[in-house]
Amino acid sequence: MPGGPELRAKGWRQESLLRLLENVLSVGEDPENLVVYAALGKAARNWASHEKIVETLKTMDEDQTLLIQSGKPIGLLKTHAKAPLVIMANCNLVGQWARAEVFYELERKGLICWGGLTAGAWQYIGSQGVIQGTYEIFMRIAEKRFSGSLAGRFILTAGLGGMGGAQPLAGRMAEAAILVVDVDPERARKRREIGYLEEIAPDLDTALAMIDAAVRDKRALSVGLVGNAADIYPEIARRGIVPDIVTDQTSAHDLVYGYVPRGYTLEEVRALRKTNPTELMAASRASIVPHVEAMLEFQRRGAEVFDNGNLIRTQAREGGVANAFDIPIFTEAYLRPLFARAIGPFRWMAQSGNPDDIRRIDDRLLQMFPDNRIVTNWIGLARCHIPFEGLPARIAWLGHGERTQLALAVNDMVAKGELSAPVTFSRDHLDAGAMAHPNIMTERMKDGSDAIADWPLLDAMLLCSSMADLVVVHSGGGGYAGYMTSAGVTVVADGTQAAAERLSHALTNDTALGVMRYADAGYEESFEEVERKGIGYLGVK
Ligand code: NAD
């Protein structure tokens, strides 16, 4: 794991980006194959690319920019010290060809790779990155349906992978009894080992009995169960049990390299990936049909059911489930009022590797935003429940102006020696101005602008002109091919005046664009934010 005060590169900006690359691999799911999460989300195209990126980051000057195309370093060009050090374009296919089959073929030929959202952009911080989002979803549901509390409520979900692995802990933090099904025993074991999952039940009967007891006692509990969700969900429905909340985070977006169809062993699936991906695709789609039909059945019987961003409804609809979209997407159902004010998953990482740096920033954050209920509640919970993975990091959903204020305060702390090394700031790509994804982020936008991908492209260009250290444009790979485009940003707080300028421009403009994107789509909250914070939205009708 990277960390410590020693520089291997010519400056902290380059060194920090190098550490971020090392970090995503150190906490990733399958580092030997450069895979960070979501089945195929990679940190670099191949090992030769990885080595060249590492070598370049170590030797490049501050006034140079490294160009990366789908995980492969292409060139190092002279720019200037205020330009980004790294710019990336990952997995962007021309519209007519943006399909899973074309992606797989180009991937096999070694011409492209998918960066997920934060994997290829070296911004992944382990399961913590997604955990606050999952927790906030659960709490919005608690407010909407269960008088503000999930104590004594049963959440059923699946997927214990890189992102899905956050679910058991998020459920427990929300005080629910949560059952998480995963077909791979290794994934369940890993989540228990790192403290995200409490128990692994030997079979469904035991799992349901454990959940039942916890519900009766109103006791928070997370239980893992090894099995296929396409078997387990229908079986729970058949027994007449109705969970309070149902979702799914298997990697259903990828029918070949992600989802495991029922009736197949993991070994059979691994072999078919090489020998007959077409059969596997068909089997996965067929398996998603009963999986989603069971979710719809739970919904009919009164459960709160939602899609958690894995494209499972889209796959089900293509498999013949005409009403799959009766299940709402989490962004529209619960989080849009936050995104409309550009409040979203902001995060920072201590380059020192020292968790005390994160704790000191927690203290500062609490001092700065004592009246921000989302932040104060979250930091209290995160401190007590979330183990650090890799470089110590923290996520907190902050909005326009708040992100810049915090980053500048942290830059000052670095300058004064109150932190042991620089800190990097980034965010998830699932953020207000940063993502066009008509089946996840921008589904059913008020003005119908769901499919317009201009916003993330504008965001990336704006971030380059705002002096960010790393700027990236990602589009979908595997099953996401043709479904999304997003932009990512990283800025290094190394305590210098130049860093203060970069943080101020990049973070302020990033969220300003987010507010403008939603104002332009007609969201009231965004107009209020424009007025309140003096954002330069021109408001042309
Ligand atoms: P991953 O590939 O690391 O893990 C997926 C897990 O699903 C694996 O552990 C696998 O064994 C399990 N699985 C596959 N098929 C199964 C089945 N039929 N039954 C039970 N378990 C099965 O992926 P991840 O990083 O955890 O992401 C999961 C999904 O969530 C992806 O589609 C990803 O794109 C999506 N995602 C959504 C958000 C969000 O903001 N809501 C964020 C990140 C990822």
UniProtKB/TrEMBL annotation:
Urocanase Rossmann-like domain mapped to chain residues: 126-334
SUPFAM superfamilies: Urocanase
Domain Urocanase C-terminal residues, every copy: 337-531
InterPro entries, per database record: Urocanase, Urocanase-like, Urocanase_C, Urocanase_central_sf, Urocanase_N, Urocanase_Rossmann-like, Urocanase_sf
Keyword Protease in annotation: no
Keywords assigned: Cytoplasm, Histidine metabolism, Lyase, NAD
GO biological process: L-histidine catabolic process to glutamate and formamide; L-histidine catabolic process to glutamate and formate
Cofactor binding, per record: Binds 1 NAD(+) per subunit.
Annotated protein name in UniProt: Urocanate hydratase
Organism name: Devosia geojensis
